[in-house]
Batch of 2 targets.
Target 1
Amino acid sequence: MRVDNNIINKKRFQVPSDYFESIDSNTFKNFNLKPKGFLVPDLYFQSIDKQQIFNRIYISKIRFLKNNFIRYGSMAAIFIGFFFFINNPEKTNNNINSSDVINYINDDLITLENFEFLEILDSNDLSYENLVSNNDIENYFIESSLSLENLIFE
Amino acid sequence: MNKETQLVNELKDKRTQDKAFENLLMQYKQPLYWHIRKIVLNHDDADDVLQNTFVKIFKGIKKFKGDSKLYTWMYRIATNESLNFLKLKAKKYFQSSEEMMTKLAKNLKEDPYFDGDALQLKLQLLIANLPKKQKLVFQMKYEQNMKFKDISEILGTSVGALKASYHLAVKKIRIEITKNQTF
């Protein structure tokens, strides 16, 4: 059977004005929203407002920035540290000067035994001749104006 | 221009964004809450997921092209947020998703925001034990009376497959409900 399109357009088939514009807001009218047995706290739906959502967006933004700062900051610190180490390896070794070493030993942080000194120093370094020469002794007597008699009788 | 298109345009425009978002929240907070609540079952979890859903909606509205209805797009976000939430929760407690759902359904007995009778408790436990797709389609069709076409847009599954899933879910639940019922 052929349907005449004019039948559909007849005036008796009318819809309320703005019916099709308002259909979206009516979508949920046919839904059974609340399932049986489930409850919500009093005034729960009134408590949800846009500020609550915006606060959450703000917090998530801060968390995102904080995480990125930690992530990229630590990566940058490692990179910079590595860069300096590669470019100035000697500088880091020369930072300790001799006075620091002397102070370190004097503070009894290192106690060396006699045999350890012997191992470190050559036997010639410890001989009397090498420490004070004969000429040095003669010069000492002359400069100190001490006579041989004085030395003997005193 | 219908109301939905107008609302989307207002949400995309920075000058009208705040007011439009307020309207969107007023209009959709209850439907979305109940949709989420049926999936996660617990009120506190539903509240958390609902807020995350609106955060995602606010952030993602610029990418909404209008290929689908606004409400199906929002339902899709809410569904994904709920499922991700459950997945993370199950992971946190070293449980499978199925174990977690059974546990959540059993917890309803002591939930202060649930006053259903024994039959409703049993129904929730049976729904919780359904496979994921069957559970979602059952909740949307049976409990919310949504159209298959809309469910298809939300879940990204064909109408035919959804009808088959729904049929199986109803059959399983009917058998279990009538099994121990005495007349």
Target 2
Amino acid sequence: MSRNSVFSRLLVIGVLLGLVLSACAAPTAQVGQETASPAAEERSLVIGLATEPVSLDPAAGLYIAEQFLLMNIYDPLIWADQELNLHPGLATDWSSSEDGTEFTLNLRQDVVFHDGTPFNADAVKFAFDRALNPTNAAATAPTLLAGYVETKVVDEDTVVVRFDIPKPTFLEDLTRVWLMIPSPAAVEQWGEDYGQHPVGTGPFVFQEWAAQDHITLTRNPNYNWGPEFSTHSGPARLSEITFRFLPEAATRLTALQSGEAQVVEEPAYQEAASLAEDPAYRLETFTAPGMTSHMMINVEKAPTDDILVRQALIYAVNQEELVQTAFFGMQNPAHSVLSPTTWSYDEQAASLYSYDPERAAELLDEAGWVDSDGDGIREKDGQKLTIDYPALPAYEEAYMELLAAYLNQAGFEVTITRMDDAGIYEYSNAGNHNIVNMGWISRDPSVLSIVYHSDNIELGSAFTRFRSEELDSALEQAAVSLDSAEREELYRQAQQIIMENALVIPVHTYNRVMLMQAGVQGWRFDAEGFPYLYEVTLEP
Amino acid sequence: MQPGGWIGLCLLLLLGGMALMAPRLALQSPLVVEPGAAFTPPGPEHWMGTDNFGRDVWSRFLYGGRISLMVGVIAMAISATTGTLLGVVAGYYGGKVDSLLSWITEVLQAFPGILLALVIIAILGSGIFNVMVAVGIASIPSFMRLSRGQVLRVKEFGYIEAARSLGASDARVLFRHILPNILRPLLVLVTLGMGGAILEGASLSFLGLGAQPPDPEWGAMLSAGRAFLSRGWWIAVFPGLGIFLAVLGINLFGDAIGDLLDPRSQNQNNR
């Protein structure tokens, strides 16, 4: 190793230290530019997002970043309001056959795409036919269309969609962005590049996409087919929206403070918490439905094969304090495997455990684990009470050491090993862990099957390795039942079985956190936590 | 020795002493969390403040220094012994052994040290012990090259030939006559290399590949603290300062030693 290279590295460290110090001063230095921000009369909004979409083709869309934009460029055939009730969208009314395999939709006649071509039955058929074979293998649309046979164009304004299996949730699925309707003319014009040149019927028209920088949408002046539950009708209130891609949380916060952006998602939590107290800013949060972020406990590996030890693990963790410390209160404490905003959430399962270190100590004593040598770690038969914890820093960095500290206080020795996604999967699938993190945002509790049905132990992600016919059959029946009261009861049962057997340490809910200038008005989240930007306005 | 050398030595003694005395100097266990006391600025109760979980940064700084400095020492021990042994063997025996060893060295040297260390970590898995091994292995080529060159120079000297003609075994010639005569440049390389090794170890921990949480290590502390710069600058700045001072101290000292042992330098009379 040459001397020069050592010195150049030393220089790098010095420069880093300099940056570190200057970063402390940066936000205040830029506040002065606020007056230079775009005039409010234009009502143009800049939103700082953490991730950039891959494609704005609904049929190729994957996840959050896409969903955020798609719902502004396109319209669904049916709208869902915040409580998931159905309202007319591009379809004015609909009916389904008794066996749940045929759906007749009557379409609006006054709708035109952004490129001027008319929206009609052919466009719907075109959209579904192509969504079945998307350009992206991981896209959501084909799953929603499982069993699709054809779309029959009855006349200009009527289609019949046919499946070869009953589709109890098809009408609800039509409210999702992945089945929104693109312009057939534009798809044919752009071919494989359509995802970069989206054309829909929505309240905003795609204008420009500068890769790794921004996407700009402008108001659709012809828009007159907004959802009936909206706070207004006609064109959107904003004239322009720019989505800027700012991967660093600190950069997003600085952009908000400097007036470069009026809204940012997932800002750095500790600064966001203090900014939220400033009347110039407002915080909007949404607790996502689906699974909470929780630790799955391996019931096959010692010492967590003992239910007393598993219960002690849950009692040892103070979720209320954890979310305050690790997330500055921006996430909510969780006490069950499902989040409270999920349909069929069971209060009873969630009330089984709360922080109680004494109870944890009693349970461990009862299980025979005592600290005989006074080092703070409990032992039994010469074995230390050790918990193997593979962690994925991307999700767990904020709290993993704190979680380990709570367990440590109860007498556990916790070995954290940082791994990447693939490493964690391999490690946990082989059953080497005692605890491993899991979570899944979803509108429906059916995601429980993916990680709690025992069929998924060997090849899937059922990392608790818990085998119970009762749980399996509850999950299986709930998935196929057409009776929603029965489904609800089965999912409640599943939550109770999971919590009674102490299979998870609940940690926190997944909250979508958006920080904005107080002048951003009319902010509402839909049922999945995406804002109706159509209603948003910007007051000076 | 130049004044810089003395400053470097003092820094090293100070940091090394602090690391050795960590259990006595620490105010509390480096692992104890106290969420209610998170982000306490430096003060009489917490000399370097507390971090985001309310842990005492001073205690973590001391224990972290132990690990970070240890990476430098152990990595250099690994690379200096292995590299020198290989270099001496290659230089002394020459021929096919030399060609093979030199070829391997050149291949290894084609990669920057940190990249090589990353590859080794990828094979061994993360962890602070593996980081020591990886950084050590990554620095073997420099020692191997240097010692090989030195042996080539020294082995032509008359006293080696004399020893050989007196019937000394290869081992005796190598360890009694050659090794002592090539130690000086190696010593300089060890000193300077240690600074680099501490930096590389801290870099790997910064990336999350070294010390595993919640164990303190300067690089890992710096990495964790950078998220909280505006709220608690002390969380990142003190471990950063630790790395900075340790590497600065070692380099000042190493430079001074190098000058002191350089035969061409004026205050030397060993010819």
